[in-house]
Amino acid sequence: MQAQCNWAQLEMLRPLCFQSPATFSTFSKHFQKGSDSSFFRTNRRINKYPSFMAAISTVSTQKGPVSTQDGTSQVPHQPLQVAKRLEKFKTTIFTQMSSLAIKHGAINLGQGFPNFDGPDFVKEAAIQAIKDGKNQYARGYGVPDFNNAIAARFKKDTGLVIDPEKEVTVTSGCTEAIAASVLGLINPGDEVILFAPFYDSYEATLSMAGAKIKCLTLRPPDFAVPIDELKSTISKNTRAILINTPHNPTGKMFTHEELNTIASLCVENDVLVFTDEVYDKLAFEMDHISMASLPGMYERTVTMNSLGKTFSLTGWKIGWAIAPPHLTWGVRQAHSFLTFATSTPMQWAATVALRAPDSYYVELRRDYLAKKAILVEGLKDVGFKVFPSSGTYFVVVDHTPFGLENDIVFCEYLIKEVGVVAIPTSVFYLNPEDGKNLVRFTFCKDEGTLRSAVERMKQKLRKK
């Protein structure tokens, strides 16, 4: 007999499943008796919280069909297999949160996808492209018109003139742009600096590349960059720094002073910068600054962005990477063997989107500011300590006034007893203890949904 994960419960390896302490106890004892106790060492984030374990079933591993009482045959499950570099990443929080939201009838303020649709003029452009027969493979690094639109938007936003043929690579979402940049430009053993909390694909992709991760923690209330710590961490051994501004999950925007300091350190130590700017149009309290626009930085920066957040079309997975030719070469080499090309009709529609008038972005920010106000004021009324969010559509709060042990336990309670979903932030840290007091809410929902979620929390959450 061998313990193994149940495919149906794990949803093809993706979600993290909440289990009762009794389930964890049985599973823990089994592994402690066996030879694979390293499981608990390599999955350090999950181990901190016993209920945060994958669903486990013990099944026979004998080969060949198994006869059942009614005479039918069943093929036994095979043990799940994963490369060692990905062992600790075989679970993720987002799918499970959304699954639990459905199971418990909870309002999903967890995963960052809008519950409203993108603009009609962009959807109609996609339909027209399909009708016009633009349905075969696109050129690997992008449909020419789309590359031109990306370059034009970049010039408008940063003042930088780039070559759309040599410096723009279209990818399947920003997540692929991140993967292509890391896999194409980072060698095994290279040091890369991250700022925690971080989007979960960063660490996983760096691990696939064999990078050595150096992590600096942004701490509340303002999540400022620890400049002295950064100065002592960066060195001639540092290959790259990965920055996300506006920042998921905190909503922080890196200040001009912080970016200038990072830039000078990168120039001094010959360090690359990978900058994830998918929320650049959701900057509320200060202007977004693109790292590539700072003196001496374009030549060492890969700027990554996407369509989904700005146009509420997250399912399209249209992204891009902008970099000088000597860096674009590595990005494109990796991209060629990751996806080769990105959806052709959606690229044509994205071209129309990027040529939207300025009034679209003004209205976008106005709508999100109204949504943000509903959620932030509501969370304060409920009793949370709400930290400032200058960009993105996320808000981070301190859940400790409600007396629960950590973020995982709190989010379980919030889903099952209150009927609202939030994301525990400890999954965004190398050391989950750093995030155990914080949870993330999103306000990329219609106003009625936000008000309903706030009302549920007012009725059922009590300070302790």
Description:
The radius of gyration is 23 Å and the shape is globular. β13 (385-386) and β14 (394-398) form a beta hairpin. α6 runs antiparallel to α14 (344-354) and α7 runs parallel beside α14 (344-354). It has helices at residues 7-10, 21-33, 38-42, 44-47, 93-103, 120-131, 144-158, 173-185, 200-209, 227-233, 256-269, 308-311, 325-338, 344-354, 358-382, 407-418, 447-460, and strands spanning 2-5, 56-59, 66-67, 73-74, 107-108, 168-171, 191-196, 212-217, 238-244, 272-276, 301-306, 319-322, 385-386, 394-398, 420-421, 423-424, 438-442. Mean pLDDT is 87; it is low at 1-47 and 49-63. With 464 residues, the chain is α/β, with parallel strands linked by helices. It has 17 helices and 17 strands. Helices cover 41% and strands 15% of the residues.
Gross geometry: globular
Q: Roughly what fraction of the amino acids lie in strands?
A: 5-15%
Mean pLDDT: 87
User: Helix- and strand-based class?
Assistant: alpha/beta
Main sheet strand line-up: 6-12-11-10-9-7-8
Helical fraction: 40-55%
**Sheet of most strands:** 7 strands, mixed
Summarize this, please?
By secondary structure, this protein is α/β, with parallel strands linked by helices.
Write the topology of this structure.
Elements: E1 2-5, H1 7-10, H2 21-33, H3 38-42, H4 44-47, E2 56-59, E3 66-67, E4 73-74, H5 93-103, E5 107-108, H6 120-131, H7 144-158, E6 168-171, H8 173-185, E7 191-196, H9 200-209, E8 212-217, H10 227-233, E9 238-244, H11 256-269, E10 272-276, E11 301-306, H12 308-311, E12 319-322, H13 325-338, H14 344-354, H15 358-382, E13 385-386, E14 394-398, H16 407-418, E15 420-421, E16 423-424, E17 438-442, H17 447-460
Parallel strand pairs: 5-15, 7-8, 7-9, 9-10, 10-11
Antiparallel strand pairs: 1-2, 3-4, 6-12, 11-12, 13-14, 14-17, 16-17
Helix pairs in contact: 6-14, 7-14, 8-9, 8-13, 15-17
